[in-house]
Amino acid sequence: MLPRTVLKVITHLNQQSTFYNVYGPTECTIISTHHIVRVSEDLTLQCIGRPAPNYSCFLFDEYLQPVPPSATAELYVGGPGVFSGYFNRDDLTKQVLIDIPGVVDGKCYKTGDLVKLDSNGELYFV
Hints:
It comes from Didymodactylos carnosus. There is one protein chain. This protein is mainly beta and 126 residues long. The protein has a single domain (4-125), classed as Luciferase, Domain 3 (Luciferase, domain 3, Roll). Helix content is 11%, strand content 36%. Strands 1, 2, 3, 4, 5, 6, 7 and 8 form an eight-stranded antiparallel β-sheet that branches.
């Protein structure tokens, strides 16, 4: 994720410059989503983009139900890089590795991050 100080520097660069803003918790092997940042776009929005190849992102409410587009919800990440659990901490593992039958193969990581999905399929931090 690009820190706000970096975003401020970007505004002083050539308008043709591009950067990648990547998001991903350690529990998902670092990069789960990516977004190409263009100097000309609104840099006050914290776009984390779309899922990286072979990853899936889901927005669920507290009952693990999908939310409507543009609603704020917790981000869940699924994919081959999702970890198998915390070492000697089964209690924590059970809190964050969630099985969502019929939605994704395997477990999803409950990130604790609140995001919104826009009409173009891009995720934004709230």
